[in-house]
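// run 5 | inverse folding | seed 20
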């Protein structure tokens, strides 16, 4: 099973998103200047659909 967390974080950084803080549990909060909102990113992303949902919420037009 593919692990997407590193790929998601790389794409977020590539598009100017910034790590804000650690959230509850194993989640981190990132800010997306594209969508203007904070995005929650899980530290264990195993689903392509979850990874694509994070891209969608951050305003990045990229699909895994």
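// decoded
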């Amino acid at each position: 099973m593919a692990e997407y967390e590193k790929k998601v974080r790389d794409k977020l950084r590539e598009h100017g998103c910034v790590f804000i803080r650690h959230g509850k549990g194993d989640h981190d909060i990132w800010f997306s200047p594209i969508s203007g909102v904070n995005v929650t990113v899980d530290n264990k992303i195993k689903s392509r659909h979850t990874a694509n949902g994070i891209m969608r919420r951050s305003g990045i037009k990229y699909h895994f």
